[in-house]
Every structure is written in C-alpha cells, then in structure tokens.
Amino acid sequence: MPTEPTIRILLAEDQAMMRGALAVLLDLEDDLAVVAQVADGTEIVPEALRVRPDVALLDIELPGRSGLDAAADLARELPQCRVLILTTFARPGYVQRAMAAGARGFLAKDGPVESLADAIRSVVDGGTVVDPELARHALRDASSPLTERERGVLAAAEDGSTIADIAARLHLSAATVRNYLSSAIGKTGTRNKVEAARLARENGWL
C-alpha cells in the first residue's frame, strides 16, 4: 500500500516549550514532518525560502515581525507554501487580517493536536480551516475602520512617540501624521493617540 507523501512544516513560535512540544507532537504523525523552527518573525521568510515547506504554522505575536505580516510576505515570495495561523488571541480583526494576508487557516492554540494535524492536511489539499469560535467572533465584530496609513501611524504611536518622532520615522510631515491620528482617534472613539493605538491593538487591527 503506497504511503502518503510527507508534508513539510515550518513552525514559528517564540515560546521554546510550546514550539518544542508542537514539533514533537506533529512529528508523531506519519505524514507530517517539522523541517524548520524559528522564534523570531524576521526569520520566517528567509527560513521558508531555504527549506521550502508545504505549510508554515505561524504564531501571531512574535518578536521582530508578526505572523500576520510574515503571512503576507510568504504569499508573495513563496505562494506554494500554505499558511496556518495558530494563536491564543481571539481578537476581532485578526481572522480578517489573516485571510487578507493569504492565510489558509486560523486556529486556537488550545485545540487538540489531532485537529491541527487535520487542518494542516486540509490546507495542503486546498481547503480553508477556521476555528469555529474565532469565525463567530469574526462574523460578529466589524472589520477594521482604519485605513492602512492610519494603522501604520497608530502602530508608530504605540510607544508614546511624539508626532515629530512618528513623522521622521515614517517620512511624513507632522501635519500629515496629525491628520491621520486625528482621524484614527475619531474612528475609535478614544481620547488620544495612545488610547486609540491600544484599542486598535486589542481589536486586532494593528
């Protein structure tokens, strides 16, 4: 009886214990093999281009670069690699952003490993897999009201940077930054740029 071809997996997770446990559990499946592990989001694309995995299993909250941003990079640079987002965060906006970035699946970390293995096989076969609870959140909550530029300016404001600092970092005029921040604050119903950035982060819009 012919054996199924092995599905090659890149695993991106910054917590070493979680990463190691997932790798061991997935490797127990006869048709799955973890061929690369990274702890930093900036390592995802270079490592994927090196090992050419069939599936990239990405956490969202990673040092250096988020899994969502890396998913968009992989869609451009290695389109044959299917991306599955695996997260503890069920924030509204994350599912929409993941799918917009080209991800084929979005799952919670606390699910059984058998479900994860089945999801990996499904996306390799061309399917899309979204955790039902996360899907309900995505359908219930409105998508981000922020434009791409407003998101970028808010992200730069998260650390409390001044308007002048943000303008210099993003190569924009101070007046332009002020306008984007004012618009984002109005859309989020908050009082200042730090509150707006915090709310946007909590809702998965950044």
Brief rundown of the structure:
With 206 residues, this protein is α/β, with parallel strands linked by helices.
Structure description:
Helix 7 (148-157) packs across helix 8, helix 7 (148-157) packs across helix 9 and helix 8 packs across helix 9. Helix content is 50%, strand content 14%. The protein has helices spanning 16-27, 44-51, 67-77, 94-100, 113-124, 132-140, 148-157, 163-170, 174-188, 193-202; strands at residues 7-12, 32-38, 55-58, 82-87, 105-108, 129-130. With 206 residues, the chain is of the alpha/beta class. The chain is elongated, with a radius of gyration of 19 Å. The mean pLDDT is 88. It contains ten helices and six strands; from the N terminus they run βαβαβαβαβαβααααα. The protein has a six-stranded parallel β-sheet with strand order 2-1-3-4-5-6, sandwiched between helices.
Topology overview:
Blueprint: E1 7-12, H1 16-27, E2 32-38, H2 44-51, E3 55-58, H3 67-77, E4 82-87, H4 94-100, E5 105-108, H5 113-124, E6 129-130, H6 132-140, H7 148-157, H8 163-170, H9 174-188, H10 193-202
Helix pairs in contact: 2-3, 7-8, 7-9, 7-10, 8-9, 9-10
Low confidence ranges: none
What is the general shape? elongated
| Major sheet description | 6 strands, parallel
Share of residues in strands? 5-15%
- Straight-line N-to-C gap: 49 Å
Radius of gyration, in angstroms, nearest whole number: 19 Å
DSSP helix count?
A: 10
Number of strands: 6
Q: Which class do the helix and strand fractions yield?
A: alpha/beta
Tell me roughly what share of residues is in helical segments. Answer: 40-55%
Mean pLDDT: 88
In oligomeric terms, what are we looking at? single chain
Strand order of the largest sheet: 2-1-3-4-5-6
Order of helix and strand elements from N to C terminus: EHEHEHEHEHEHHHHH
